[in-house]
Design brief:
Number of strands: 6
Radius of gyration: 18 Å
Helix content: 40-55%
Strand order of the largest sheet: 1-6-2-3-4-5
Shape: elongated
Distance between the termini: 41 Å
Structural class: alpha+beta
Length: 190
């Protein structure tokens, strides 16, 4: 199966993992994140039997997954990776992923509020303005590139993913947190 072109936010990724659990999928989930990070989750009838990321195996992969702000996903029916160390139940793993650490910069300022259709343009203007504030004139170019890549945004998850991707362009953790906090504060007031 070809690589999905859609970028998944962290929340969308967890929902996708849950859907494969519910469908009792057998095979491999490949998560392709920025910085060439590849995570592989092996499922046997919906049960997570192994996880790998570089030299990390088993529960050591959880922090790697939690560090994802957005990723692409590919599903393969080939398991090939052998069952690893005994893992907790799949539901326990999903619960741990859903309780992503508040210390992670991608989640430091809480989720973005739901955006109604009449607020989309205003929210986009806020995000673009903040990006230019942080990146200067290059912010306009970065904005155009990301908007072409993202397409039409209609959900809070889509906005969350956009904000996280733009934040990665900033690079500095302190500035990233301030960028996200400013945007979420301004959007909550529209």
């Amino acid at each position: 199966m070809p690589l999905e072109s859609q970028l998944f936010s962290y929340r969308e990724l967890i929902n996708e993992i849950i859907s494969h659990f519910d469908k009792k999928t057998s095979g491999s989930l490949f998560l392709f994140a920025k910085d060439n990070m590849l995570i592989r989750i092996i499922l046997d009838q919906g049960r997570i039997i192994a996880m790998a990321c570089g030299n990390n195996r088993g529960m050591d992969v959880i922090p790697k997954i939690q560090s994802i702000t957005s990723c692409r996903l590919r599903v393969s029916m080939n398991k090939t990776l052998k069952e690893g160390d005994a893992l907790p139940s799949t539901q326990d793993i999903i619960n741990q992923l859903q309780s992503k650490s508040e210390l992670n910069p991608s989640n430091a300022n809480g989720p973005i509020k739901n955006i109604t259709s009449d607020q989309i343009e205003r929210a986009l203007n806020i995000i673009e303005s903040e990006l230019i504030e942080f990146l200067g004139p290059m912010g306009s170019i970065v904005w155009e590139e990301h908007m072409e890549e993202m397409g039409k945004l209609v959900s809070a998850d889509g906005f969350e993913s956009l904000i996280n991707q733009l934040a990665e362009e900033i690079g500095n953790t302190e500035k990233i947190n301030t960028f996200k906090k400013n945007i979420k504060s301004k959007i909550s007031n529209i």
